[in-house]
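DATA SHEET
Item: assembly model
Revision: 1
Owner: S.N.
Input lines:
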Amino acid sequence: MFKLEARPQPSRVMSYASPLIALAITILIGVGIFLWLGKDPIKGLEMFFVEPLKSAQAISELTVKAVPLLLIALGLAVCFRSNIWNIGAEGQYLLGAVAGSWVAMQAGPGTGRWIVALILLGGALGGMVWSGLVAFLKDRFNANEILVSLMLVYVGQQFLDYLVFGPWKDPNGYNFPQTITFLSVTKIPRLMDGYRANIGVLIAILAVAALWTFLFRTYRGFQLQVGGLAPAAARYAGFSSRVALWTALLVSGAMAGLAGALEVAGPMGQLTPYLSVGYGFAAIIVAFVGRLHPVGIVFSSLLMSLFYIGGELAQSRLGLPKAMTSVFQGLLLFTLLGCDTWIHNRLRWIGKPRTAPRRSEEA
Amino acid sequence: MEAWALQVAATLNAGTVLALAGLGLLINERAGIVNLGAEGIMLMAAFAGFATGVHSGSDFLGFLAGGAMGAILAGTLGYLVIWLNANQYATGLALSLFGTGLSAFAGIKYTQEKLGPRPHFEIPFLSKIPFLGSAFFKQHPMVYLAILLALGIAWFLYRSRAGLVLRAIGENPESAHALGYPVRRIRLSAVIAGGALCGLAGAYLSLIYTPLWVEGMVSGKGWIALALTTFATWRPGRILLGAYLFGGVTMLQFHLQGQGVQIASQLLTMLPYLATIAVLVLISRNPAWIRANMPASLGKPFFPEG
């Protein structure tokens, strides 16, 4: 009989291997789903793992989806490392897009390219307002951040809908719920002509470096993580949990808001109710699969972006429902958490079940 | 008068979804397990219940399917967090994301489907009483079952030995383990029972309340039910009260829209979510009170040594 027991030390090997094993299991289940739906699994997997990497154009599209995921997940990593459960990044992303849109709509004929910087700043501030609200209610009234941040997702979506169905609706838009198309001066600069990949890629790379420095090379980052791992130790050391709360939430709100502004002034070019494809929730998975480490998150955001594009391709070419993407995403996180057990635990053979249990010294 | 009676009836109807789910989550949390997967469980159960209802033509089988779906999903969550020691928050979240995705995926064929004629219930004699009859005695049996469940769970928790053990495990699993109780098995049963109730709530939503299958139709009710357990300070009677209160807020929103109030419908739709935040703030602002009422081991892993 096997028994699950705690390892003396967490396994380093497992902590790297676990996401890969989880991915392998997810792909296996995926093959099962394709077979069950009567589709060729090789073709199905091709949509997810080959087609999105085939050309420069495809790679550019991959970054278009990976950038928001990466930015949001970086912020969430700070939260989760501080043991603050902000799961409303989706709402912060939406509010960032709303704020960015407001700035973009102020542009007139004489506006210069500098407005792009203001749009991004506006987006970050918008996200911070939404996450700051969570921090305030938690700090002042002890309200659970999981539930408050989540409720604010629904409120944020309704607020966005209200704006585009009401005051912000394009008067010449044939009554479609959308704002005017932003002036081209507000467009997030692209890296190369003909490709949709924009300077969001550079911002994301900078953010990875900044966050790595913050988490692993600054005292504040250290304090935050101690508070997450061992709250009692942090209190004893005099690290303020309030500062940690505000820092983590404001950083993650700013990142999500930035992602929202990049999206609305980048690929979208106008605000519509269909802005969100669940990046805020998928980023939670990205953060965990990336081991809450900035470099790991780079890889996991690219992987999740493959899932998004693969889902779209499977829909258009194989006639599969697009919701396949979220099935794979959820499955990946689920299996990952199962695999993570083996980082801290191992199975040990403890003799045949029939024999009377003997107490060994180490048990 | 009759209009108000219908309003009351609608409130009870809307509150029943939250009451069933809230009671389920209460059982989980009393055993020390937070189930953030409620939203996903309810969606999967709403789908399972609806699909079964469409194919079999039987609501009873639909409810059975919903409850079973809830129990299976919650059992998976329970196995991961209780035996494999996975983080409760992350695992619950995973279940919610997975359930949202899978139900949308599996349910695509059912968005156009319709259930048979919806049954109409009346309690003989009582339903003839003016006002009270239309308000209280023309409900689906599930509405009364939810009330009976609240009473039953209250009795179980406070008057039965098994309930005492469950509460003891929620407060201090180490001591319960030392006394020889199978802490993990009891926790798992609590999680499964709670999941089954969330499943019934989902099935009620798609079979009776709406009655339709729409992608993402639970729209946050699972999360609101989670907030309800805090609001109720982990007591079954107050769960019921809170559920009807929120049911009332939901109805108020439709009522105001029906009355042609000059407020954008999006702002009215925000109401239940804003109310949840307001209630959380009001209830939580006294940390000592929350701490005194909250099961002490809530959300914390328990891993017996030896």
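QC remark: The mean pLDDT of chain B is 91.
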